[in-house]
Design a protein that fits this description.
By secondary structure, the protein is of the alpha+beta class. The protein has 4 helices and 14 strands. 18% of the residues lie in helices and 34% in strands.
C-alpha cells in the first residue's frame, strides 16, 4: 500500500458535531466520513439526490426516504470505501486555532399557529478560522495515483464541512509511510478530552439499517497546547458495515 498525503486549507471550516442538537458549533477537524466525502467529490461520485446524479433510482430513493434515509451517500463512494478498505489519518497543521461567529441565513421548515410553513432564520455558527490539515490515506499504488490526480483537479467543488467553506488542496504527494508526528488524531471510546470530533464513519450497507453514518466514540485532535503521543499506527478504518 502507498500513502497518499495532501493538505487541506481554507478561510474557515464548519465540521458539525452530530451530538450537538443545533449543529452550530464546529469541531476542530473532520471525521473519517467527512474525508471520505471530500475524496468522493474530487473523484466525481455524485450523491443520488444531487443535481449531478445521473438517472437515480427514484423508486429506491422514495423507499429509503420513507424509512428515514433522506440524504443517502453515493453508492459508488460506499463501494469504493469498502473495496479499497479506506484507511485514513488526519492532523491539525495550522497555527493556534480559534473559532469565530459566522451568521448564515437559511430556510427552516416549521409548523406555526398562523399556518405558515417556513421562515427565514439567521443562525450564528462557530466556525474554525484559517484551518489547515494534513491527511494521509492508505491506497494501492494505482488508486493512490488516480485519487491524487482527482485532488489536483476535482470533479466537484471541495468544501471543509459546509458549502460556504471552500477547500484548498495543496502539496499532494505519495509516500511510503505516514510521517511520524504526535499530532495525528487518535480514537477513543471513552470520555472526550481536548478537541474531540465524533468518530463518524459511513455505513457501507445503508439499506440494512437506513442510517447514513455511525458515530461511536471520538477522534481527538492534538494541538500545540495539548499535544498527543506518537502512535504506532495513526491510520483508522474509515468505514463500517451495519451489524458489526
Amino acid at each position: 500500500m502507498n500513502i497518499l498525503i495532501f493538505e487541506l486549507a481554507g478561510e474557515m471550516a464548519m465540521w458539525r458535531n452530530v451530538y450537538e442538537p443545533m449543529g452550530s458549533y464546529s469541531c476542530l477537524g473532520p471525521a473519517p466520513s467527512n474525508l471520505a466525502g471530500l475524496i468522493g467529490a474530487a473523484v466525481g461520485f455524485a450523491a443520488p439526490r444531487s443535481v449531478a446524479a445521473d438517472h437515480p433510482d427514484e423508486k429506491k430513493l422514495e423507499q429509503w426516504n420513507k424509512a428515514g434515509l433522506v440524504w443517502p451517500v453515493a453508492s459508488e463512494l460506499l463501494q469504493w470505501e469498502e473495496s479499497k478498505d479506506f484507511q485514513v489519518a488526519c492532523r491539525w497543521i495550522g497555527k493556534k486555532f480559534r473559532r469565530i461567529s459566522w451568521n448564515v441565513n437559511g430556510y427552516k421548515y416549521m409548523n406555526t399557529k398562523s399556518g405558515e410553513e417556513g421562515n427565514n432564520l439567521r443562525l450564528q455558527q462557530q466556525v474554525i478560522l484559517d484551518p489547515a490539515y494534513e491527511v494521509a490515506v492508505a491506497l494501492p499504488a494505482y488508486e493512490a495515483e488516480r485519487v491524487a490526480a482527482a485532488l489536483r483537479k476535482p470533479a466537484f467543488p471541495l468544501c471543509l464541512g459546509a458549502s460556504f467553506c471552500r477547500a484548498i488542496v495543496r502539496n499532494v504527494r505519495i509516500e511510503d509511510a505516514v510521517p511520524e508526528s504526535p499530532f495525528w488524531a487518535f480514537r477513543t471510546d471513552g470520555g472526550a478530552l481536548g478537541e474531540a470530533t465524533p468518530f463518524s464513519r459511513h455505513i457501507v450497507n445503508p439499506g440494512s439499517c437506513f442510517e447514513r453514518i455511525r458515530s461511536d466514540g471520538y477522534w481527538i485532535y492534538p494541538t500545540p497546547d495539548q499535544p498527543g503521543v506518537i502512535a504506532a499506527e495513526p491510520l483508522v478504518r474509515g468505514w463500517v458495515r451495519a451489524g458489526e
